[in-house]
Structures are given as structure tokens and as C-alpha cells.
Amino acid sequence: MEKTRWPQGIRCPKCSAGKISKFTTPESRRSKKYISKRTGEAKDWKIPARTLYECLDSTCRYQFTAKTGTVFSDSHLPLQKWFLAVALLASAERGISALQLKRELGVGYQTAWYLCHRIREAMERNTAEPHF
What we know:
The chain has helices spanning 2-5, 79-91, 98-105, 109-127, and strands at 20-24, 31-35, 42-46, 51-55, 63-64. The chain has 132 residues and is of the alpha+beta class. The strands form two sheets. Strands 1-4-5 form a three-stranded antiparallel beta sheet, with no helix packed on it. Strands 2-3 form a two-stranded antiparallel sheet. The longest helix is centred in the last third of the chain and has 19 residues, at 109-127.
């Protein structure tokens, strides 16, 4: 995704500076407790390690990922599911419902609705440009 987004090299999405530092955060020691919807058991969820970029411009210092500023931002869903959802929505001749997407991806209805909404909005924005 990095090579597709930045073919000439990584740039800061905020200030467009080219001096960028790449680093990986360690897996968090703290864990979140949650109840599994499938089994009803209490489980621990550790916050995984992430790869981040930081702008080295002294006035910016913005931290970002490859997903920042894209349709995939602010989502914990794996990119594989996003790409599959995009493929399903783009290839469906008469469209696809959130309920069908839920069944295809194995996610909850709210997640499927969110995916449909975000992807359709991005497709609409992309086709809204005038063609001369």
C-alpha cells in the first residue's frame, strides 16, 4: 500500500515534507478485557505493534500511517476485508446490500453498513469530477 500511495517516496500528508522517520511501536503491555460475542467468554485483547511514520520537520512532527487520509482510516478492520468489500461492491452489477456484505465478509451488520457507506461515498467522490 505504501508503494501505491507514495510512488516517489513517502511524504507527510499534512505539510508534504519529504523527511520522514519510520518506526514500530511495541506491543502494548496493557490489555483490554472484552466478552466474546460468539462464546460469551471473557478474553484479553492486547494492543498489537504498529508501524508509524513521523514527519521530521520541526514545525510539523505529524505522526501518520499509510491509511491516514484514505477511505481506510479510522478503522481496525484488516485491509484484506476492505479490499474484498471494494471488489464486491465494484463488481456487483445491481449493487450489494450491507446484509449480503455481512454474510460475505463474516463481519457484523454495523461494520458491513459502515463499509458500504464509506466505499460508496469514495466512489461517488471519484466520479463527481467533470469529464471533458
